[in-house]
Every structure is written in structure tokens, then in C-alpha cells.
Amino acid sequence: MVKNNGDKEPPAQHVSGQSNRPLSHPAHALTHEQLAAELDADILSGLTAQEANVRLEQYGRNDLGEEEGVQPLKIIVAQIANAMTLVLILAMAVSFGIKSWIEGGVVAAVILLNIVVGFFQEYSAEKTMDSLRSLSSPTATVVRGGEAMVVPSSEVVPGDLIEVKMGDTVPADIRLIEAKNFETDEALLTGESLPVRKREKATFEDNTGPGDRLNVAYSSSTVTKGRAKGIVFATGTFTEIGAIASALNQKERRVRPVKRKPNGKAGPHRYLEAYTLTLGDVFGRFLGVNRKLSKLAMLLFGIAIVCAIIVLGANRFHTSQEVIIYAVATGLSMIPASLVVVLTITMAAGTKRMVQRNVIALGAVTDICSDKTGTLTQGKMVARGAWIPGIGTYTVELTSSEPFNPTKGDIRFEAREPHEINFRPRSDKEENEVTEKGTIAAPSQLLAESRSRLQEFLTVASLANVATVFEKEGAWHARGDPTEIAIQVFASRFGKNRLTIMKEDNPEWQEVAEFPFDSDVKRMSVIMKHTPTEEHFAFTKGAVERVIRVCSRYHTTDAPSGEAVDVEMTDDYRNHILFNMEVFAGLGLRVLALASRKIPTGIKVSEDTHRDKVETDLTFLGLIGLYDPPRPESAPAVRECHEAGISVHMLTGDHPETAKAIAIEVGILPKRMDKVSADVARAMVMTAAQFDALSDLQVDDLPVLPLVIARCAPSTKVRMIDALHRRKRFVAMTGDGVNDSPSLRRADVGIAMGQSGSDVAKDASDIVLTDDNFASIVAAIEEGRRIFDNIQKFVLHVLAENIAQAGTLLIGLAFKDASSLSVFPLAPVEIVWIIMVTSGLPDMGLGFERAVPDIMRRPPQSLKTGIFTLEFLIDMVVYGLWIAALCLASFVLRVYAWGDGNLGQNCNDAFSESCETVFRARATTFACLTWFALFLAWELVDMRRSFFRMQPDSKKYFTQWFLDVWRNKFLFWAILFGFVTLFPTLYIPVINHAVFKHTGISWEWGIVFVAAGLFFVGVEAWKWAKRVFLRRLEGKRTGRRWEDMDVEERVFGEYLSGYESNEGRADEGRD
User: I need a labelling partner for 980 at 20 to 30 A (CA). Which of 248, 400, 1022, 1028 fits?
Assistant: First the structure.
């Protein structure tokens, strides 16, 4: 952890809400008088300047600490001291040792490129803490010695008396002692999308979550309304944002623990074991063997040494130059010298493509943990339903993604109450009865059919509201609180826009007084004067329970205005209202009540009138339900994730019913939740309190990890990711706020929002969605799978060639000349040429290949195997041995079938007349291997489909292969370049004899053509056999293939009782 100027780290068990120095209870559980007493603070005059300096020395500065500076030399050393780089350095030394200057130079360039790329990757990783520090408030207004003064926020100490007003950034965590209409924006910290109204007089339980501590203002939150005073109780890393910074900056424990007996004792061998493992870890970190690429390099280097020893042993460890050259050639044949640079360029190209698709980087995932607000939803409230007693229920069906546009969407009207309407049909029969939910009607028609009650309801909705909705240059805009904007848009659908009703020239209504929303009473009211009649009315909206408490009457019928049809409010009818409210809440709506009263003549009302005299004896008018609409593309995106075998989890701070409704709407939860068994249904949807109350063992025993966690805290997100990791899942986490940073870092893939996300979230993540669109994750997943596939293809291409070359050389040990020394079928320069020049560019071309047709219709790749799947390993051996067999056959045919069988003498070193046959046979083998390497690249474009039929739906049966070849122009020209460069190496004098140790060929091209034909036959036969085997294996395992199952069956089939697929049969094939 970070330290600076005496700043102390929070202890490992630091309790959220506590001070730098532990209090008797967290600050939110104490009254401000109790807190002031424990902190020795003065709530009137503040600290003295002397005491503030003492505390600054004691507690340290109010910042997030200073990270150690970046050490370029240390990074460079780390880049050099890893296995792959060391192997390449040895390969370079060997190349220069045998005076192969070109090969040595190329390997040196690869080493340099690897070091430079690695250096900049490590250097950029140091930005996260800088972004966290930038969120700190630069200055603060403190009261010291009875005087208000502005000081740098880093000098604020516990016990300081702070003043904040609208627009300020809170400099530290403060316990409020005075608040006037005070609200803060905590979206970046708690995930709450709406400003939070604070209550300084309230106290809460110790374990209350950060989002519900309404008597606390958090460091780095912004004041959106009102003003407040408070006592600082936590600074620096002890604040909520500081705790997040500490979690981000924690370093992995690098000392292996000693295994102890139940009584706590451990024998000497356990200490020796721990020390040995720790030293092994240090050595591993030094060599970088924790990386799969480095492990591969070490493995291949070991195999290369073994091969070289075999060569020396086959020649009785003769130390002549000729034998050493053969051993070097065999060792080089196992080192994929081009792999690092090809991998680097491929990843860079993949990154560029992902930027074009609105993301920066991604790997394959099995689970996505997503926030709701602003990611799956638009982050904008919209009115979805309303109920007016005596009239009926109105529902709004959105038809566009313009929540501020009152002209978009349809309105249905049904004379029944919400609890009498089936909003969620469960069958085709019920779906056909959906018209009972109401018929679509124009707003003008609904206004004409209503005698007065709808007009009264809309008037209150429009005027008990300070939001404005207006059209400008063909686009609709809105200002104000999201809740009030949604209600204003609903009223505007019927022409009851506040701006229209209160137009300046001849207003129908004039505002007399406003009583803003108060979190204590949870109501907002206005006093309006009706201009034509000079009458005054009180219009109120607010939480249903709080509004109906002050209502004494309600309407029973839609009578003309002025007719007395009110009925006295009873407790039974209040419960009836709450029952209807719960129906709307079950749809994921936030429900508010509207009410009004006519102010009796002679009673004067103004801003000074106590609101209790206004908000009394009201007439209940109805309910209105609001919701945060999902993005139109969210449901299709979630479906595509399911198509790809990826589970989606919603981790949100919203109410459980709201979260559940949105999750069902976008497809995260099954639409038939009633078919899910009770224990599974309880596990699918949980609150953070329920989830956090479970131990890790209880979480692991759940039949399914929650698909929805409501009221989610930052620690809950991290715990959810850990639970997924224990189930061997590869997790992606989306987030935009500071509170998401630890979970973004803990996830295998962190996905930050590019527009609404904080710099902290972006720097802690692996991906940035530049359009904040969940649908872009699908494009990123496809791109990640494409890159994964392409890496697998070119690594297979390289390793299959290594096996082919090594196999050819090892079996070629049997070819011995007159001096009983082995004659190599391939020269060292030929081997390096094929690896670096002939194959390098086609490998890059494979890295640029587009995704195969079914890439998003298959389950995620296993994380245990990575690219080295069983299929990969078998393919590598089969292709390598087939190529080696054909190469050896071409060499044998040229030397023994159509040659004199004379292997000459000293033919590994120089050309002579006796070496004519060997040099021509070697050239034939070199040409065959070159062609095989080039053709194998085309065959590996699709690892299972035929090269001649890679597009199964194409009707171009005879020409589709040519279109596929031409589609990847880089690969096409790379292979053509490989063909062209073969001829100069064969026919240019000096180069062919002195460098490549072969000579030009003529009729031997016939052998090359026949061998090429056999190569295609063998590879195509193998791919056909794989397709048949895998189809039969999948059929036995599931009864049918993965891609033939519908999405519901893949994702939820095992949890739905009596589930039947689209084919009309139960899912009998699943385990």
C-alpha cells in the first residue's frame, strides 16, 4: 500500500464508515454530537489552527498517497529476463556462432521488438493511481478558530468543520450536522443514478451500506443541490474512495505460507517446503514462466537441446564441424523464432479493429457481470403506466429510444384497475387476451372521453413538477430531475406541458408557492393560482405511502368538474391503493401518487406557510409508474451472449423488483420464472444483503449463482467475481464509477464505459466501450474469439512446421555418407528461411483472418487448455508427421529411386561433384516443405471445414474456394511471396550452394507437384474424419449439437421444469 508524509494505511480489517482512528461505532451510527465528542471537535468554531497542524502530522495528508515512481531500468530488465527472450538470445548466439549473420540479425530484431513492446505495456499500467488521485477535491472551505477559510483539500483533517454548497466537491467523508435541501451525486461511488437527499438528524445501523447512509457525504461526490455543514471523520485512504484505492493498490503476497497442523504447529519439512516454493516463485517471476508463451519457449528450448543431443549421439558424439552444424540445424528446427513478432503484430492489428468497433481489447469470457443503469438501460426515466380511480389504467408502449419525445409511443387504456390486468401473458391464449390490457387510443380521444378526472390528474402531473420538456430544432430536450422529466413527458403526451400551461402572455396557471421534495415526508407540493377563476389549489406528488396518509378523499367515477362524487378515504382503500402499487412495482416501475385540494377561500398561502397546513385533507387522484428503459439493443445483445454460451449477470443498486423486471425484459432471467423450482428461483435473484450473509461454502453450494443481485455494494461485486472464479469461470465485469474499480480489476476482463465512466474505471479496465453500449460487448466478444482462433491457427502452423522439420532431420540421421556421418535432408539456413521468411508472412495473414461463420454459435473455449486443446495437439502431430513423411519420401525418391544413392562426402559443408545428388534431393525437399508450409496456412483458415468448402451456405460449389482465398488479400500475397522467393534461393549462384546448401532442380518439380497433391489429400481426409467424429460425439453427449438448441434451452433449460424445446421435445440430452 501507499504511504506519504506519515499517512497510515487502513488496517486489513478496516470497517467501512469508520474514522482514521476507530470510533465506538461507525460515523453514520452516531449522532453528530456523539461524533464530535469522540473526535474532540467543535461543531461551532471548528478546530484551532494549531490543533489542525497536530492532526495533519498525526493522520497524514488527505490524499490517496504517492505510488513509487516508474523505474524504466527495472522494466527493461524484467523484459529481458524472461524465458522467451532468453531462448531467443541463445538462438541468436547460435546463429552468429555458425556465422549465419542474416538469421542472427533477424532474431536480434525480434528480441528488440519484444523488449520495446513489453516496456511500453508495463509503463502504461502505472496510470490507475494517478487517475484516482485526480478525483480528490482541490480545495475545501473549513471553519477553524471560528473563521471560514479555504485550504487545500490535502490539509483537511479528522475533526475539521466543513462547509459545502451546490457545485462543490466534498473533500473528505463528513458526518452532516446541518443540511438545507442538500443532495449529492454519488453515482461514481455508490452506483446510485439519482442525486441522494441527505438527512443530518438520522442515524443508521452499523452495517448499513454506503448507499443508504443518508447522514454522510462522501469524498469526491459532488453537491447537486442545497448546502450543508459537517464534521470530517475520515480522510485519505480511510475514506470510501480511499478504501477502493487501497483495494486497487494491494500487492499479491509473494511468500508461500507454511502448512500447519490443526494445533498450529509445523514440522521443519513444512518450512523447507514453503521456502523452496517461494524461491521457485522468485525464479519463475524472473524468467517469466508464469506466462504460457514463456512456458512454451522453455519447453521447445528443452526439446531442441534433446534433439541436438540425439544428433550428436547418432554420430557417436563426433565433434567435427559437419556434425555440429547438423545438431544446430535440428535444434533451430524446434525454435519458433517468428512466433513473438507474429503474435505482437496480430494483437496490434486486432486492437486496431476493436477500436473501430468501439472497444479497445477483449478476450473470450464465459460470464458477464453487468451494471444496469446506463449500460443495459438508457439511464433515463420514462412513465410507463398510470391508474386513475374511477376511470381506469393507462399504459405507455414505447416504440423508439427517445424518452424525452412525447409524440413517440402508443397509449393503451383499460377501464379496469392494475391488479385486474394480466401484464405478463404466460401462454398464447393469454397473449391473445392482451387486448384486455387496453386498446390503443390517441391522447386527444382519451381527453375527449374523460369528463374531468384525467385532466385533473395531468394538471397535477405537469404543475407539481419543476422539470421542463421542450422541442428545439426538431429534437426534444429536457432539464431537471429524471423522475420529474418522465412525469412531464407523460403529461406532454396529452398536451399538458408545463411551459404551455404557464406561458407568459396568458397563463392558465400561476405558481404561488413551492414546497420542494423533502426526504422526511417524501412529498413535493406547489400552490397554483387558476387565473380564470382566481382559485388556489395545492398539487402534491410523492411516495405512495406518504401521499395517501394525508389524503382524506378519493374519486369513484369520472364525473364532470365540480360535481361532488368524492368518497371518504378508509384504511381498506389505502390498502387497495397499495395493492395496485405493488402490481406496478412488480413490473419494475417506481410508483408515485398524485393528489390535490382546493384551498378554501380566505386562506392565505405563501412560501412561509408550513407545508403541514398545505399537505392535508388531499384528494387522491391516482398513481403513475416510471421505469428506466433498457436500451433497444440490450435484449438482442443479451440474446447473442446466450447464443455464444455466455451467462449474463446483473449487479445493480436498484430495488429487487425493479432489477428483476428489467432482467426479465432484456432476457437475463427466463420469462417463465414460474417454471423454475423455488430454490433455484431464490438463487437467481438475491439482494446484496442476502448474498453477503452467505459464507463462501454456502455460495458454492447454490444450485446457480445469482443472475441478478440488487442493492449491490462494491464488495458484493468483488465477492460475486470470486465465486465465479471458484467455479472456474472466466469473468468480464462492466462498470463506470469509482466503486466499480476493484471489481473491474478483479475480473478477468474489466469493461469500462467510455462516455460516462470515470478515468479510474477506464484505467482499471481492460476494455473501454467508447459508446457505452452493452451491444458493443458482443462485437468485442466476437473479435476476441476471432483473435483467439487466429492465434491458435498460426501457432498450430508454426509448431506443425517445427515437428515436420525436426522429424525430417531426426529420421534423416539414417542417411550417412562414406565417412559414416549423417547428411541432413534440410540445411540450417533452409530451416531458418522457412520459419522466418516463408512462413512468417502467412502466419501474420492467418492473424488477419475474419471470424469463421459459427464463431458466435459455440460454447466458450476452455480456460484450462487455452489454445492447446486436445484437437490442437493432435492436429499438430498429424500435420507435422504427414509433412515430414512427404519430405522424407521426396528426399528418398530423388536419392535412391531416381538417383545413384551416393550421399557423397562432406555434403553438409560444401558443394562438390559427389554432392550433386544430395544437393538436388535437398532442394527437392526444401521446395516440398516450402509448398507444404504455404498450403497449410490456407488449410488452417478453418480448422475443420474443407479448404474447398469453407462457406457451407454458399451455392458456388466450384469457385467458392477461390473467393475465400482472395478475401484475405494479405494472406494471398504472403503465400504468393513465399512461392516467388523460393526460386532465387534455388537458382542464384553462390546463394544456392554456399548459403542454402542445395542446387537448382529441373524434372524434380514433378516430385514436388505429386507430393503437393498428396499433401492436400491427406489434410482433407483428416479434416473430414474430424467432422464425422465430432458430429457423432456431440450427438451422443446431448442428443443434438449445441448450435441446434434454442437459446432458452442452452441457458435455462436445466432449471425449467417441464421445459420443451422448439422441436417439441424435452431437453433429454443435457446433464
Answer: 1022
